Prior knowledge:
Blueprint: E1 6-10, H1 15-26, E2 30-37, H2 44-56, E3 60-65, H3 104-118, E4 123-125, H4 141-154, H5 156-159, E5 166-168, H6 176-186, H7 210-222
Parallel strand pairs: 1-2, 1-4, 2-3, 4-5
Helix pairs in contact: 1-6, 6-7
Amino acid sequence: MDHEKKAVVLSSGGIDSTTVMFIAMQKKFAVYSLSFNYGQRHLCELKAAEKIAKSIDVKKHLVLDIDLRKIGGSALTDSISMPEAKENSGIKSNNIPATYVPARNTIFLSFALAWAEVIESSNIFIGVTAIDYSGYPDCRPEYIESFERMANLATKAGVEGKTKIKINTPLIRMTKAQIIKKGLTLGVNYSLTHSCYNPDVSGLACGRCESCFYRKKGFQEAGVVDPTKYA
């Protein structure tokens, strides 16, 4: 019988998901890294996720294809203009930004749930944060709590009482600076990560989108040199 403690970790190749992966490893989980080719504007984040998975020798790195371009509705998957961050981007508003991908975390967590059930894992890790983020509704604690309840109702393992699915969100109450500081104590190499929504053809970060804004803000507040190469 396999007694290995396993966890499915959603990996976008960015700061948050990579830090979460190292936290899972610190907790002695065998990491099953899961990324998605979902029709996003570029493949830089997938290349970063692959490099990260190889650098820490995860148990398995899986990339699933889901073409959300056919649905559209986001600046990341449609011909909608990419918004640039403004000086007040750190201030929350009730407006959901154009970079929100409809139901993305629900879709991603559903695939993670399926894989977790197959490998007999009761733990899924996701790098959502409710502090330094762009206002996405599927990053809120109440959303994660609801999904976790649903997960335990929707799976064979949950119904039979073999396991209780836990959606782990270790970063949810942390700022980007706190996440970076935590990652550095765990040995995260942030030069391998990619955050930009709109890189140039060579893969250099634009330095102007919301994701770049929060990345630069995080390194600055952490008092750490940002290893990112910007266009």
